[in-house]
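look at this record:
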Amino acid sequence: MIGLYDLVADRLRANCPSLLQVEVGAEGVKAIEMLALGGDVTALVAPISDEARPVSTGTFHIVQTENETFAVVMALVFPGGFPQFETARQEIKTALRGWMPDELALPIEYVGGATLLYDLKREGGRWLHRLRFRAVSQATYGVST
């Protein structure tokens, strides 16, 4: 599913004009701090977790469904970034919710969001907000004996 994150980043770049920059990488405050360049919103696409469902077997094949949860972490600094936040948030959700790349079994779902960091200092501050999405894929394997 690694290629999925590149596809997500490409889709955000193409459909979210309010995002200054979109990158793929490991989630975390240190990684996203490199992206928060100014009042414009930047975003990091990162894996969070995956969960495999129980295997189902047929006569000559095995099928397993996997739920992959990934994040789009929005970063901005303020003062100056507040007006862009809601616009970027809605653009990201609209671009990804219901989209179904070829390798998925179901369309991508938005599953929630949370503030990771809201740090106000005298000279300005930093705001990190994570939007979580779920992608479901299905793998079919031949039965081995």
